[in-house]
# Entry
Amino acid sequence: MRIRIERRGGLAGRPAVGERDESELTAEERSALHELLRTPVPSAPAAGADRFHYRIVIEDQGRTRELDVPEDAMPHALADIPKITL
# Structure
C-alpha cells in the first residue's frame, strides 16, 4: 500500500507533500491511518483563516482511495508526514 499526503493552505499557502509505503509507517502512523479509514471524516473545514487542509491518496492493489481531511480532523502522527519542497 502506498500513501501520499498533501497539505494545502496555511499562512504561506505553499503545498507540502509526503509519500510512504505502509511498511515505512510507524505503529502510531499506521494506527492513525486505519482509524481515518474506519471513521467518517467531516467534510466541512474548521472555521478560521489560514487553516490547513489535507488530501490523502491511498493506492493498494490497483485501487485508489482519496480522503479530504480538514486540519482539525487530521491526526498529528499523519500531519507531520508532508514536507515543503524548496
Q: What stands out?
A: The chain is about 20% helix and 35% strand.
